[in-house]
Automatic annotation (TrEMBL):
Residues 38-235 form the Metallo-beta-lactamase domain. The keyword Metal-binding applies. This is MBL fold metallo-hydrolase. Keywords: Hydrolase, Metal-binding, Zinc.
């Protein structure tokens, strides 16, 4: 991969880091049957350093066929460290992990980026230890890494090109990322917007932490999309199949 410079601006790469199969209502109200969805991760190459937005499932799920292995599919080439190494990126060189939230399909690979500082909303970090939600596994994120707990918007590199902003509802401290590239603006939504249909129809999952907050987050994304941003939906298998993997993304070609 080419390296980001002042001339190229920020470069973004997408990876699938495992799959999970759940009732479709987990992702959108009224959904039928079950849906196998990707765990989505992104490498953000900034001239001043590397960041990863969400780290997918842990490599402990590779080859697992019982327990969560019945619903989680983690091919051996999918852990975030393996994905990065395939691009000749040293996982130890990643400076920042931006966790949209700390569920096991979003923070499972954190430990594979050993030198990174985790950027997470303070409310999310605290809730991850509360024991109220079984989708949190502290063995994924309570691992001794430096943690930068933020409140509200945060400018990661200090130049406005990579900004995290709160999008609560799925969890109390969920956040998304807005990225300015030479080819357009990207919004990495995470689980505040699972499917394209979620935004098109303003439809939430059947069970959310806070419905009013979730609806407000969808409205914020809708405004960004109307302004021209490319939304990367958190778990949409149809949309994700159109996103080039492990290659530099051109936002002008993303149909969101």
């Amino acid at each position: 991969m080419r390296q980001a410079t002042a001339e190229t601006g920020v470069l973004v790469y997408a990876f699938t880091c495992g799959y999970i199969t759940l009732p479709t209502t987990y992702f959108i109200a009224g959904g039928e049957g079950k849906t196998k969805v990707p765990a989505c991760s992104f490498l953000i190459d900034h001239p001043d350093g590397l960041a990863v937005f969400d780290t997918g499932f842990s490599d402990r799920f590779v080859g697992l066929e019982d327990g969560l292995g019945k619903i989680v599919d983690m091919p051996e080439e999918h852990p975030i460290a393996v994905r990065l190494e395939a691009l000749d990126v040293d996982p130890g060189a990643v400076q920042w992990i931006i966790n949209s939230h700390l569920h096991l399909d979003h923070a499972g690979g954190n430990r594979m980026l050993p030198n990174a500082t985790v950027i997470v909303q303070e409310q999310e970090w605290d809730f991850g230890f509360a024991g109220e939600d079984g989708a949190y596994s502290t063995q994924d994120f309570d691992i001794g890494q430096t943690v930068k707990k933020v409140r509200g918007e945060h400018d990661v590199f200090g130049d406005g090109s990579v900004t995290v902003f709160p999008t609560p509802g799925h969890t109390p401290g969920h956040q998304s990322a807005r990225i300015r590239t030479a080819t357009g603006e990207a919004v990495l939504a995470g689980d505040c917007c699972n499917f394209r249909r979620s935004l098109d129809e303003m439809k939430m999952p059947e069970n959310v932490y806070n419905a009013d907050h979730y609806r407000g987050s969808l409205e914020s994304l809708s405004s960004l999309r109307r302004a021209g941003a490319r939304i990367f939906y958190g778990h949409d298998p149809d949309f994700w199949s159109t996103v080039p993997q492990a290659t530099e993304l051109n936002m002008a070609t993303i149909q969101s």
